[in-house]
Write a structure and sequence with these properties.
The protein folds into three domains: 75 residues, Winged helix-like DNA-binding domain superfamily/Winged helix DNA-binding domain (Arc Repressor Mutant, subunit A, Orthogonal Bundle); 245 residues, Aspartate Aminotransferase, domain 2 (3-Layer(aba) Sandwich), CATH 3.40.640; 104 residues, Aspartate Aminotransferase, domain 1. With 491 residues, it is α/β, with parallel strands linked by helices. α4 runs antiparallel to α8, α5 crosses α12 and α13 runs parallel beside α15. It contains 15 helices and 14 strands. β4, α8 and β5 form a beta-alpha-beta unit. An eight-stranded mixed sheet has the order 3-10-9-8-7-4-5-6, with helices on both faces. The N terminus is likely disordered.
Amino acid sequence: MSKRRATIEIPSLHGIDRTAHVGRRLAQALRNAIARGELRPGERLPSTRSLAASLKIARGTVVEAFDQLTAEGYLEARVGAGTRVAGALTDMAPALPPPPVPVAAETIDLPAPAARLISIARALTPHPPIPFAIAVPSSGVAPDDNWRRLGNRMRASRQAAPSGYHDPMGVLELRIAIADHVRRSRAVHCEPEQVIVTSGTQQGLYMAGRVLLSHDDPVWAEDPAYPGLTAVLDDLGVRTHRIPVDAQGMNVERGLELCPGARAAFVTPSHQYPVGMPLSMARRNTLIAWADQNQAWIVEDDYDSELRYAGHPFPSMQGLRPSRVIYLGTFSKVLFPSLRLGYVIAPAPLAEAFAGARAILDRHSPISEQHVLAAYMREGHFEAHIRRIRGLYAERRAVLLAALEGVLPEGCHVQPTDQGMHILLWLPEEADDVRLAASALSAGLAVRAISPMYGTLPARPGLMLGFGGFPAAQLQAAVGELAKLLQVRGA
């Protein structure tokens, strides 16, 4: 049996004048709705009884209007099938003039916050998963079979079944697993009560700003810096001092010269984003001493510390001064970005404030995914997964570096780094990395320009090349295409 087309609602009919000549007004309103496209050929109208009850008019009035429009060819009635808009109305003149053309979006006078948020949305829109896209995990590795198995098991259990609202800090089992993981892997000192589960690092950055800062407070941010951070600081209305980055990471001494009274410093000390070097131990100590002396805060974004391919990483800054550091972590890089799970580890006196900020934003992350991740970590699959992808990504990184060697034009060189899912390719000073990135995207390559990530001039041109999600042969072919673009553009 064929499925009947659903009966549609006709909101515009509820505005008709019911004081006099209601039947004629209803008939005209139906003609207008058909002319405007609100009612389309073949669509089924409500029954005369239900429409009369909805409009609070006599059923006979509706029957009269339907009969009139049927006679005019607008409607067709079939026994047992109800009344529908006639199937062939293409030659029928509209009962009303054509509706006005909608005002083009670009002619609307946008409020300042909307215009700013549009630019942020464009800056943070991810590239498609084509060669060199950033933070694309390897297919077939994340999520793995253990994740799928646990997902099926946990979602079938009453514990992870859909229910009401939950603790904005997150599922306790996951917070216990996170606290244990960062203690062993990053020398972080915390209790589960200090862990707040977030929807990734981006939300953690915003929460940190809401908890720590007031409008017009001075803050430090690296230069260049992660666009998601600078967008948050702009949105919060703070006074951001961009502190230059050199071979030892953020130049803390320069920060002390520019603004010693800053309320917070936002840093990526393990693997500076986007350039790639770690913050030296001497500068870590200077930064902590500054925070102690000024009762300021350090927001440590430790976004990809698990993905280190050589040597031993510095321990977290949080482990050096738990009372002054807010530590941010994410599962996006080591599992998959669409999971949208990360965490904040706050000093104990601030934990409840972060929970409040989390509750304001969206209450909490999906509970079932938190239970799955907690079980994945508790049963040892997470650490095994990290070891597996660390080896795989190390191989792909080596392939990319080897492919780039010998094909780069003069003035181009790779920034040394032993961590993460991308490398940075510096371009000659006169190169236009933004235009080059646009040309690359047209050629099927998703490189990311870094000059827009600078807050001060001159902005150094360079390209970020992601490698995690792409096999060796694909990376090698992509390098060949990139080399051609660099030659053509004179980079």
